[in-house]
């Protein structure tokens, strides 16, 4: 095609001698042909040993088949163990007789077979971050397995330096579903302080798994240059930018060619690959403006409950005959496959089943290919598949990305990466201009991303129109409405012709806008890579200089969270340069930490760093910091309920208010309300245990409820004494309450207390039952208003506004307690 010829000409004339070249090759552009032509040209012209990298074995096999059968190019695939490679194939590669096609992991490992390639072509480079960074990423899962004892050992070392709540999440003691998304980072000063213990624990477990055996030696002497991320599922140790310059097979190649659907605006491709500068060849403008195929997006979650969505998906799969399902993990994949257990004539294919060839799947009349954790991969064009199901594909795929998005509010850094990842998944079955497929979307995170029109302005005009049409069709729709629309699309009838014309007409009115602040991000990426190079080699002075260069050039409001991160990194390097407390380097570190806090005042753990505390997570919290922790948790709660639709939130709100109305369910409603407000909640069991509690980072409330009482009931001294002792019970029995200021609150309709209750009532606050119920209704309204302005990603401005709103409306633990009187003053005490 003309655009392929044009790009090859530009490459041959201007870029053949450049060390790093990126080529924009979107879906439908014939990326494989362009890459293989370049590989073959270099093999012949320069006598290069050429390695063509693919993300998966499936794509290796697919690429070799295309090279040999479609293009007449000699290529040989290398997958599996080195020991199993054919001597003839090895000879063909080493002598330059054939192109080697292999996976990223075959090159990016501690002892690669491909040790000295001359040219490397990286297919789907936009998806390569996890494949490349994995070489320097040590993932230690919390689940039972060969690394569980190592996880326990590291958690034990870290425990004194994190809060009780964080330790509970780290070790799997989750209070609710929202803890599953928790992520944090161990401050660099704490990592350096604990380095001997961490190294000892990791050394002792060096043979626990292949990942430890090969990855840990690469990180061991560079722990100061790495970050330790803590999450509810794993501990991740890795550098911010993969140090690819230390890996000779990659770094010493004469040229690296990155073939990508996007050129990595804002320097993202450089961050992914650890390169200072990558030259770029854009796809011709006419090709970039053209859409690729037609997608009919179906968003059942905008109208239906989860069980109804699953039933509808199965109904569509049976009507379509063949379908492809991409889901986030193996558990979800197994659950979807299980739905077809009773369908004897329906075949289920896993990723392994179609690794070598998809022909058996394509020949099947009734089949589903269900693949877990796959965004890019094997294609299913034309009649091979007309139904693609995307189930819960996450926007962030590792703890570092989740930390940058959810903790630092630095989603602007990852915008294009997220978009490319999700849209590549949505395009698995539309690979040419005339291709078409339905895309059935489930999972709140993906639904919120694709159905939120605030994201659309950055998408291709035809995609904007497709999403607009899909959302309109999916709102207020019953299952039969969804099926009628799907059948019309699948059968390509007159109704779909009219719908398609509407989409085409609407697309003509749309404009694609670039993401904000991409120029600033592009300007700083060379300093980011240089910083990582310097700190990796312990050149702390240069690392500090490069970190300061980053902070000076990040000025856009959208980059506040990322600027805060780099002020923090500059402060951490200054700490490494400090020899004594209060010397110039130590003071410079505090200045940088203060600048980080100014840039991101809603990031909780930055506050203590300004006071020079090496372990901020374990330091004493202040009420103002308590609010930032509450808002962060509230944000996660609301995101989990979804931003694209209100029905999950309204269902939760109704449940809470209904529970608060009935005495038997009052305590559960109270706990749920605290959870919705962003507090850590629980409810005691046993005779001596308290009623629900709401915990923050510095303050906690523990309730003594009397929801079945009456205004005329006399509140007994026994209950008063129980309430007074509840804070002690919390400190003794709940690790998450450790070091918190716990206050007992009595919720009751009673206005009179028995003689002898007064000493105990001086240790508790009073909240009228009717007032609490009214307060709860108002609280739901406040949160409902906050939710309407919540972006689908972590946002510092929303957090600051939410913190002000909650404080001003008396919905923080501090303001709640200020508003409540001492129980002994609020109740009349009977005389003897």
Can you give me a brief rundown of this structure?
49% of the residues lie in helices and 14% in strands. With 832 residues, the chain is α/β, with parallel strands linked by helices. The strands form five sheets. Strands 3-4-2-5-10-1-11 form a seven-stranded parallel beta sheet, with helices on both faces.
Characterise the protein shown here.
By secondary structure, the chain is α/β, with parallel strands linked by helices. The protein has five domains: 174 residues, Rossmann fold, CATH 3.40.50; 90 residues, no CATH class; 201 residues, Rossmann fold (3-Layer(aba) Sandwich), CATH 3.40.50; 95 residues, no CATH class; 199 residues, 3-Layer(aba) Sandwich (Restriction Endonuclease). The protein contains 37 helices and 25 strands. The strands form five sheets. The chain has a seven-stranded parallel sheet, with helices on both faces. A hairpin with a 3-residue loop joins strand 19 and strand 20. Helix 25 packs antiparallel against helix 26 and helix 26 runs antiparallel to helix 27. The longest helix has 20 residues. It is globular and about 105 Å long.
Secondary structure layout:
Elements: H1 2-15, E1 20-24, H2 31-45, E2 50-54, H3 57-70, E3 75-78, H4 87-94, E4 99-103, H5 104-107, E5 119-122, H6 129-133, E6 138-141, H7 148-158, H8 164-170, E7 183-186, H9 188-204, H10 210-219, E8 227-231, E9 234-238, H11 248-251, E10 255-260, H12 268-273, E11 279-281, H13 285-289, E12 294-298, H14 306-320, E13 322-327, H15 330-338, E14 347-349, H16 359-363, E15 367-372, E16 387-391, H17 399-407, H18 411-426, E17 436-442, H19 444-451, H20 453-456, H21 461-474, H22 479-491, H23 494-507, H24 518-536, H25 540-553, H26 560-577, H27 584-599, H28 606-609, H29 623-641, H30 647-661, H31 666-677, E18 680-682, E19 693-695, E20 699-705, E21 714-715, H32 717-733, E22 741-748, E23 752-753, H33 758-761, E24 764-768, H34 769-788, H35 796-808, H36 813-819, H37 823-826, E25 828-829
Parallel strand pairs: 1-10, 1-11, 2-4, 2-5, 3-4, 5-10, 12-17, 13-15, 13-16, 14-15, 16-17, 20-22, 21-23, 22-24, 23-25
Antiparallel strand pairs: 6-9, 7-8, 8-9, 18-19, 19-20
